[in-house]
Amino acid sequence: MKKRISLLFLMFLIMISVLVGFTCNRKGNSEVMIDKKDTKLLTGITYGVHIDLQNITLKDLENIAKLGFRYVRADILWEYYEKEDGSYNFSSFDFFMEQLQELGLKAIIIIAYSHPNYEKTDSVVTAKGRAAFAKYAATVAKRYQKYEVVWEIWNEPDSPAFWKPAPNPADYMKLLQKAIVAIKQADPQALCIGPAVVGMPEELWREYFQRELVKYVDAVSVHLYRDVMPETAGELDIKPIRRLIAEYTKNKEVPLVCSEWGYSNVEKIINEEIQGALMVRILLTNTYAGLPITILYNWKNNGNDPHEPEFNFGLLDHQGNPKKAYYMVKEFFEELSGYQYYRRLESEAKDYLLVFKKQSSYKLVAWTSEKTLAAHEVSLKEGTKLRINYKPIYRSLSRAELKKLL
Fold first, then answer.
1. Do 71 and 183 reside in the same domain of the chain?
2. The pLDDT of residue 301 is above 80
């Protein structure tokens, strides 16, 4: 899925390479409602990765599961699977879903995009198009209802790259509502999320909420791409969106999930090691914020050009060779296997000292968002000192050691 890299961000990353630094602003219809018991896929803290089906193998899926991811996110393209009006061929997708089930992987499946048989542009804006899209959505939901799936309606409708000629929240919400009603009729236990938009100002988010977003979705999905570092997501996006959820919900709990987020490494601008650290900090930032699902973008690079930002979001290169980000995410899963977030230790706002717990065992994960790649010393209670930098480090703690730090 093509991502947008702004000129501002490229300039910012160039500054990193010159100044060797980072920046961070953060301081410390009842007809479609379902019972809470049916939202089990949206509880706890789990992680996943986006894949592109045209460049994925069974070995990739095996490695994704082995690494520690529990979700994969992929799209089921309307135009590809419906070659003739109302006639579908899902044989290849059937095989894909069977493999996920065998590997114990859950799925977020994006139902997208437009179809030339029904629409003139790459969007769905007509009654005929919405009816056909809803029929398609209901068909796939019914077909795959035995699998552990979360259905996402479209991808980034706030972007002209995905909703042409220009984003239109009113048209998108008409589509989402009709699609989710059809999905729930086909499978009353289905889970649906949206709008899968990139972080926006609160007033733009409000357009979706005013059109009854939380009446239809089981979780609000957001893509937290940004021109600054991951830790800013809490104050700038997660908290404002949660305020809107609380404002527009009454008797229905609606979680917030991050269905896509990543950083690209571009030759001579941001290296693989920095990318890897940022990918891990995405997982840690969203864990700290309590988001039940975080999907990293992307499993593999989308191309071979090292100068093209859109091609270089992968944990692996285009040929499937692991990048440094792969090994750093692997370390994250290995170090925190079985652990749950416990608390944050007191520190300066720029420093993150998160404690994770597994039964009677504790582990400290520490890093800084300070504007430098160099390490600095953090003074904890009882005279304990710790050197941290932009890359998260892991330290095991006994109960007694933790008690001294509290």
1. yes
2. yes
